[in-house]
Specification:
5% strand; 269 residues; two-stranded parallel sheet; mainly alpha; 58% helix
């Protein structure tokens, strides 16, 4: 038998921790327990239940790291090589663009390319004929692209989210959350608080992986400007509720561009 236990929060709680420790000490002989959870950080691995999972005599701990957008082309090239295929750089980048965020789709498309490639060579034309646009995006990836100043990429992700049926309030929530945080961080930084301290005191906290993105964004605008963009977000909220004229999707595109550092001459709707 296989039992699957999923912990989206990454924390089992006191009763759950006790149950895990008890189970790991006497696992059932005819059962495999598969536990899926987010990144298990150092502090969690030092807890009793963490040690039971990571260091147990009858347990196996496997960390699966996500493939970032800048790592995806190399991942695709390796998969192509394993399939006995070679591709031009343009072809690899096209595959990456069409399957971004969806590694399963990438693997499936490579299997399809094996049937279509002539002499094991993959060209842009081959990819255009074979690979569907299977990109899958999420609002957090959109926010990261905006913080990194990737305006064109952010717009493509926004259109992808729209095509996948994500509603404007969900996207506005993510952008507004980031704007409030940036406005608060920028204000503290302008008052002479060191950036490391600003990050450590932030609520919600700024993770180490996101600090370079936040630092890059903070160099873009003043606290006042971030506050003005937050007012733009409030106007979009009114548009979504039918209390203001204009298209929420057009306004979300404009706000994304502005947050990414683009200078736009057109006023807000």
């Amino acid at each position: 038998r296989r039992l699957e236990l999923r912990l989206p929060s990454g924390k089992p709680g006191d009763k759950g921790a006790a149950a895990l420790i008890e189970y790991c000490s006497r696992p059932a002989e005819d059962t495999v327990l598969l536990i899926s959870l987010p990144k298990l950080d150092g502090s969690a691995q030092k807890t009793k239940w963490g040690k039971a999972l990571v260091e147990g005599a009858q347990t196996q701990f496997v960390q699966i790291w996500p493939v970032d957008a800048n790592q995806l082309p190399q991942w695709i090239r390796q998969r192509l090589s394993q399939a006995g295929l070679s591709a031009s750089q343009d072809a690899v980048e096209l595959i990456a663009a069409r399957v971004e965020g969806n590694l399963l789709a990438a693997a499936q498309e490579i299997e399809k390319l094996k049937l279509m490639a002539e002499g094991g060579q993959i060209t842009v034309e081959t990819v255009q004929a074979a690979v569907a646009d299977s990109a899958r995006f999420d609002v957090f990836g959109l926010v990261d692209a905006i913080l990194n100043g990737e305006a064109a990429h952010a717009l493509r992700m926004l259109e992808g989210l729209r095509g996948e049926g994500v509603e404007p309030p969900v996207i506005l929530w993510a952008l507004s959350r980031e704007l409030r945080l940036l406005a608060n961080l920028a204000l503290q930084f302008s008052q002479g608080v060191p950036l490391d301290k600003v990050f450590s005191q932030a609520r919600p906290p700024v993770w180490d992986k996101r600090k370079p993105l936040m630092s890059k964004a903070l160099q873009r605008y003043s606290a006042q400007r971030w506050g003005q963009l937050l007012l733009d977000a409030q106007r979009i909220d009114a548009q979504i509720k039918g209390q203001a004229s204009g298209s929420p999707w057009s306004s979300l595109s404009r706000l994304s561009l502005l947050m990414a550092g683009q200078r736009l001459a057109l006023p807000a709707e």
